[in-house]
Amino acid sequence: MRRRDCLSIASGAGLAWWAEALRLRLAPAADLASDAASRAVNRADGFGRAKSVLVVVANGGQSQLETFDPRPDAPLEVRGEFGAIESSVPGTFLCEHLPQLARLADRYAIVKSMSHEDLDHGSALYLALTGQYHVRRSSNPAPREIDHPFYGSVLEQVRPSAKFLRTSVLVNGPALVPFEPGPGQYPGLLGRRFDSLMIGDMTSGQAAVEGLERLDELDSQRHSRRRRLLQQLERTQSPSSQPAFEMQSIYQQAYAMLDRPAARDALDLERERPETRERYGRHRPGQACLLARRLVEAEVPLVTVMWNHSNRGQDRYPDDEEQFGWDTHNDIFDVMGRSLLPRFDQSFSALLEDLDQRGLLATTLVICMGEFGRAPLVALESRFAGATAGRKHWPAAYSIVMAGAGVRGGATIGATDRHAAYPTSTKYGPWDVTATIFHALGIDPSGHFYDSTNRPFAISSGKPIAA
Q1: Which of 87, 135, 139, 391 is an S-S bond match for 92, by CB 3.0 to 4.6 Å?
Q2: Reduced to 3 states, what is the DSSP secondary structure of residue 366?
Q3: In the 8-state DSSP scheme, what is residue 148?
Q4: 83 φ, ψ to 5°?
Q5: Count of CB atoms situated within 10 Å of the CB of 281
Q6: In this structure, are residues 372 and 62 in contact, taking their beta carbons and an 8 Å threshold?
Q7: d(CA 54, CA 334)
Q8: Is the peptide bond between 174 and the residue preceding it cis, with omega within 30 degrees of 0?
Q9: ω into residue 376 within 30 of 0, thus cis?
Q10: Are 162 and 180 within 8 A, CB to CB?
Q11: DSSP assignment, residue 205?
Q12: Cβ neighbours of residue 92 under 8 Å, at least 6 residues apart?
């Protein structure tokens, strides 16, 4: 470095210090108090309480009126066909088709005043999984390499973990909207090096990750020789080639999987007792939730479960309940009463109980959310399949659930009007959920991650849900 450069940097640092000192001298006391309060919040209210975060995504837009914010006294066209039952927390009511979750209401908090402005699944799912609005708001865009990254990919960069195969695992993915993978669940501008480990259908009978088993005829010496040969071949490629760099990263991940039998064991549901598997449900969402619990036990920092892989598979596969999603434009009471709600009640309650009984809930933040809610008016839509009425998309108000890692069980955060249509208290958005995820893991959500050109991006534009 030349002397002139050194003096320039030093003077620049001095000017920056002087400017900050002057700001502190001249800033109003209220602004300084606000700064101090902001920093205090970053270190309070559950900061760093979670060793793991487990997010369950109700792909398709779970109705608040048929789950955690029923309106039994509203007109029929608003309340719908289902009744409400009182939970174990006096004054808290759930849909009548959620009896097991009603029994466990003292173990989770309900946030009723979630709200945003995106009206369609693709971009709203992107918003839920990144905390950022898509440039094409209220649309169904395809994933792009310039997308804002999935929150799991951001965590892969800002705090990678060596305890498991990957820092972030996505189970029962990818999420389909309704039959093509939606945006938001990929690393986007970070590149494939920061992709989450994606695991598909755990009821298919196939291995969770294909090729993870060591071949009997491949001893350690042959394995080492093959690895050295691969490294020699890689040296012939341009080191600046982005595809080559990303492929090397994928190879490294694959070898890490082969070298860790404990990781292979965590992905093997056959090690669970049959009665435990039955408790979760022998269906895709149930077994996905069971695998998520095993991944938390294996100390994976972030696990995301797509509770249903398709947001509206019932249109194309009306007789296959594994394809059903929460996008219930029509036939909402048939689809939810017959399949969605009983399965959700079974698998999500099993997950909460199991984590609690194993002592994992105290250090695991559990979040259950959709990309938005459903409209407070039951009506038949001619543009969609189905013979009976349903509900349209509704991002103005919806409910999510949080539990564990210091969350006050039995609490209700926020409120909505008499039709569960609009919040009547503080609004929260998906950006606040992503901030809460990083906050719980002990990462300041106002910090930054960096793309391949070293441009900084805010981890989250929201604030942790301190309430």
Answers
A1: 87
A2: strand
A3: P
A4: -90, 180
A5: 21
A6: no
A7: 29
A8: yes
A9: no
A10: no
A11: S
A12: 86, 105, 110, 410, 412
Evaluate whether 356 touches 106 at the Cβ level (below 8 Å). no
From first to last of its 467 residues, the chain has per-residue pLDDT tens of: 455 554 444 444 444 333 433 443 444 444 445 445 445 545 568 899 999 999 999 999 999 999 999 999 999 999 999 999 999 999 999 999 999 999 999 999 999 999 999 999 999 999 999 999 999 999 999 999 999 999 999 999 999 998 898 999 999 999 999 999 999 999 999 999 999 999 999 998 776 665 555 555 666 667 667 767 776 676 666 555 555 555 555 556 555 555 667 778 899 999 999 999 999 999 999 999 999 999 999 999 999 999 999 999 999 999 999 999 999 999 999 999 999 999 999 999 999 999 999 999 999 999 999 999 999 999 999 999 999 999 999 999 999 999 999 999 999 999 999 999 999 999 999 999 999 999 999 999 999 999 989 999 999 999 999 99
Please count the residues of the chain: 467
Q: Which helix (H) or strand (E) holds 169?
A: strand 168-171
Cross-strand bridge partners of residue 244: none
Query: What does the block give as tokens for 312?
Result: 């509206």
Q: Count CB atoms within 10 A of the CB of residue 77.
A: 11
